[in-house]
Amino acid sequence: MRQLLLGFCLLAAACAGGVPNAPTSPSTPIGGAALTEAKRGSELPFRGTLEAVEIHTGSPPVLHSVLTGTGQATQFGRFTATFEFDIQLGVPSTTTGSFTLIAANRDSISGNLTGRGTVLNGVVTIVETATITAGTGRFADATGSFRIDRVANQTTLTSSGSFDGTINLAH
User: Fold this and answer.
1) Residue 121: how many other CB atoms lie within 10 Å
2) Rounded to whole angstroms, what are the CA distances from 154 to 51, 64, 67, 157?
3) Distances (CA, A) of 109 to 4, 36, 45, 130, 139
């Protein structure tokens, strides 16, 4: 009887549906009560992962880079990314530029970014700070910021990483 009761409880919990729409779930976009809460001005967590390829143009000491990639994030679900920035080569190298993230339904956020990168054995460790200044769709007038931690291969010009910060949909 105890096993039957335990099985029923597990089935009821699985069918409740609360977890898949949780604001921190990286596979689903924001919705329902979380969206209402955000419109009242609260900051929501914004976390995710990113895989990308870069194309560099220019010549030292400044390279221009266009990064295109895909990822998964809270409040967004799956997205495509475009970063465009200038790299001032040095020890460490610094970057300044812009970014755009576009969700599967075409809603987007965009803004500015700055960063630093250090090279060791052909691998660049990059830390960037992105500031959200605009958005479209449900992200219209969004603000916020997030930190991006990436590792880039200088030979293949591929990078991967994660990000963590907040997004505010109050405006």
Assistant:
1) 5
2) 15, 14, 13, 5
3) 48, 19, 15, 11, 6
Domain ranges of the chain: 2-168
CATH code 1.10.10 for 2-168: no
Q: Please work out, in degrees rounded to the nearest 5, the angle formed at the alpha carbon of residue 109 by the alpha carbons of 44 and 48.
A: 55
Distances (CA, A) of 98 to 6, 135, 159: 52, 13, 17
Q: What is the pLDDT of residues 58-68, one digit of tens each?
A: 999 999 999 99
Q: Beta strand pairing status for 123-135 and 108-120? A: antiparallel
**Any residues with CB less than 8 A from the CB of 10 and at least 6 apart, and which?**
none
Q: Which two tokens stand for residue 115?
A: 């960063």
Flag residues of the chain having pLDDT under 70. 1-41, 170-171
Q: Is 13 helix (H, G, I), strand (E, B) or coil?
A: helix
Kindly report the three-state secondary structure assignment for every residue of 108-120: EEEEEEEEEEEEE
Q: CA–CA separation, 152 vs 131, rounded Å?
A: 21
Give the C-alpha distances (Å, rounded to integers) separating 94 from 68, 106, 109.
19, 31, 23
Q: Residues 80, 24, 107, CA angle at the centre, nearest 5°?
A: 35
- Can you give the pTM of this predicted structure? 0.76
